[in-house]
Design brief:
By secondary structure, the chain is an all-alpha fold. The chain contains seven helices and no strands. InterPro entries: Tetraspanin/Peripherin (IPR018499). It is a multi-pass membrane protein.
Length: 188
């Protein structure tokens, strides 16, 4: 990825470029005011050409950001809330993210961002970071009582992990729209 070799986040450099662009526009505007008071048209012509070139550079930057958004840090390799779930759930150093997803799933009684299949290609599944035999996190399961989302106790753990989800044991996507919209606001 192009941003891997950068010592600072990509938006830091975007902010510096915007700062430099703003200072340049301020300097050019003072040149324009000064050029209007001069008797000849040469400074006014230079002012016009500089303003036109700044406009073209800004348009080129916008086109570059639209064509290659990862260059300016606008898009990760996997975008959106589903990509964040697949990349960071139960990964070391992202415990707060995992706890937030577990809280949302327990509170909203849902599983995944759109459904439980979001976990199929997650780093958590592919690297087998969780206990053996789990196809979904325990926070996706129907709980025996209102217990902490950090230590879930499913009604039936083995039936919750079945390939065909049973709404008696695993949260179904009845509230799918709410789950995806709230989790998208939290993580996306």
């Amino acid at each position: 990825m192009p941003e891997d070799g950068l010592p600072e986040p990509p938006f830091y450099y975007v902010a510096l470029a915007l700062l430099a662009g703003g200072l340049t526009v301020c300097f050019i505007s003072t040149l324009g005011i000064w050029a209007t008071y001069m008797p000849g048209y040469i400074l006014l012509t230079i002012y016009f050409l500089v303003v036109l070139s700044l406009l073209l550079c800004e348009c080129a930057g916008g086109v570059l950001a639209a064509i290659w958004p990862r260059c300016v840090g606008l898009q990760s390799a996997r975008g959106g809330a589903v990509g964040a779930l697949q990349a960071y759930y139960a990964v070391p150093d992202y415990e707060e993210f995992t706890a937030a997803v577990d809280l949302a799933q327990t509170y909203l009684q849902c599983c995944g961002i759109t459904d439980a299949r979001n976990y199929d290609m997650s780093v958590w599944q592919l690297r087998r970071l969780g206990p053996r035999g789990l196809s979904v996190p325990l926070s996706c399961c129907v709980q025996t009582e209102d217990v902490s989302y950090l230590n879930p106790v499913p009604v039936n753990q083995s039936r919750c992990q079945d390939i065909q989800p049973n709404p008696t044991y695993r949260h179904a996507q009845v509230y799918g729209l709410q789950c995806s919209s709230v989790e998208h606001r939290l993580f996306g």
